[in-house]
Specification:
This protein is mainly α. It is built from 19 helices and no strands.
Length: about 475
């Protein structure tokens, strides 16, 4: 679909392309009702209740999942074990929270610019892949160096460099999902495939990070950097060989400049309730996850006195449960509706966190953790799929930038608020765990508060039509 620099010509391009082959199919009847609830449309179905995936669809999803695993491995290694590294130089949890929250600071602005520029860029390998390559290489170098640095300032600075280039690569890569999987009825399984890969990468980082860190401090970061380079290089080569670059529906010249786009995204938040509700809900989901990732290792090792290898094994087991939940949730969402599935998951997620505020009893923790794991895995899987129905044609890069901006708010706020809660409760309320039990207050509050905004996403279809008419 043709994009031009002028906003009025965006409207004409969308209207003129709506009937062309390969564009997003019109929705009506049962399919329209399913779309409004976040589920797949009706038609030819597989056993999960959605249209059967063709071989080409499966190949695309497999290729797209490859960088997800590597990027999830790297970002989880940093966001989870950076606190353990930083604690060697400071015991101030607020400072640790600020360092880990640097990920969110970068997510607030870099994805918007990278996504918009990847919409505009035209090269022989498309507009997205040059950003993937330009971000991956320096991010891997910065990641590998984190474990070798000897001061808190240098560790924090190198983590900031990693976060910055990570988003340069990640945002255009993420925009390739709606580019290559444009059928909304398959969105749940597309995100489920990605979530399985993300869960696998996350699980490997959680399980292996502590074990590697107990051997040598640089080891987990060097291994993650190596995996990231190899996986992304393989992805780029295979995508180019299969001729999948430049197949996006907005593959034409033009597009809005980043500054214009930033103003446009701000305007969308003001004018469109469903987008605004999504922004807040996703920020809260990320706040809960970021709070936990930043301090869960310290909660186990400092608060509950487990060794680092034991803590890693425990978290790795939880990651396996997350992986199972992520794999099942996509098909369930295609059948029953994304919003319905996410609502159930959020209740499990929030109540699991709530229980951990009041107890360190091992049996009760054993009850809470599966609810947190399955609920969290489902929310991780479905968060982006809930945004996809809101995406007008030609703005995939922009709205994936919007997605990461909403993530950024949560990732900044979560570790800082959790660090503050830990510092305030260390002396009295949660002295037995040196305050680390207070992190669950932030997690529970964020997860349960997001339910207030989830219901407003039922107007996604109406909001989409308003967006495309602008």
């Amino acid at each position: 679909m043709t994009e031009t620099k002028q906003h009025s010509q965006h409207k004409q391009a969308r209207g003129g392309a709506s009937a062309s082959a390969g564009e997003r199919p019109a929705r009506n009847g049962a399919g329209d009702r399913a779309a409004r609830d976040g589920g797949g449309g009706r038609g030819g179905r597989d056993g999960a209740g959605g249209p059967a995936l063709r071989t080409e669809d499966k190949v695309r999803l497999g290729l797209l999942a490859l960088p997800t695993l590597a990027l999830a491995l790297s970002i989880t290694m940093v966001s989870t074990y950076l606190g353990e590294v930083a604690r060697r130089y400071t015991h101030q949890t607020i400072i640790i929270g600020v360092i880990v929250g640097g990920e969110g600071v970068m997510a607030l602005w870099i994805p918007l610019f990278a996504g918009a520029w990847s919409d505009r860029l035209r090269t022989r390998i498309g507009g997205r892949l040059p950003f993937v390559l330009a971000g991956t290489i320096p991010a891997a170098v910065a990641l590998a160096l984190i474990g070798f640095l000897g001061t808190l300032v240098l560790v924090a600075a190198m983590a900031g460099v990693f976060f910055a280039f990570y988003f340069v690569a990640y945002e255009p890569y993420r925009a390739m999902y709606p580019d290559l999987v444009s059928d909304e009825s398959k969105a749940g399984r597309a995100q489920s495939t990605q979530a399985v890969a993300r869960g696998l990468g996350t699980g490997l980082a959680l399980l292996g990070g502590g074990l590697l860190l107990s051997v040598a401090r640089p080891l987990p970061f060097v291994v993650s950097a190596f995996v990231m380079v190899v996986a992304v290089a393989a992805f780029v080569v295979l995508i180019v060989r299969r001729g999948l670059v430049g197949r996006r529906p907005d593959d034409a010249e033009g597009g809005e400049r980043p500054r214009e786009l930033a103003r446009r995204v701000a305007g969308l938040l003001v004018r469109h309730p469903a987008l605004r509700a999504y922004f807040i809900a996703n920020s809260l989901w990320e706040m809960a996850l970021a709070s936990m990732k930043a301090f869960v290792i310290l909660y186990l090792t400092v608060g509950l006195k487990y060794s680092l290898p034991s803590a890693s094994l425990m978290i790795g087991a939880v990651a396996f449960v997350i992986l199972v939940g992520a794999g099942a949730s996509g098909k369930a969402a295609d059948r029953f509706g994304h919003i319905k599935v996410v609502r159930i998951a959020l209740w499990a997620y929030g109540l699991g966190y709530l229980l951990l505020i009041f107890t360190t009893s091992r049996p009760l923790m054993g009850v809470a953790v599966p609810f947190i794991a399955v609920g969290g895995g489902t929310v991780m899987t479905m968060s982006y799929a809930l945004l996809m129905p809101l995406m007008p044609e030609g703005e995939h890069g922009a709205l994936t930038g919007f997605y990461s901006m909403s993530r950024g708010v949560g990732v900044v706020a979560g570790p800082i608020l959790a660090g503050l809660a830990i510092a305030l409760t260390r002396a009295q309320v949660f002295s037995n765990t040196q305050g680390f039990q207070a992190m669950w207050i932030i997690c529970a509050a964020a997860a349960l508060a997001s339910l207030l905004f989830l219901g407003r996403l039922r107007d996604a279809e109406k909001d989409r039509e308003a967006l495309e008419s602008e």
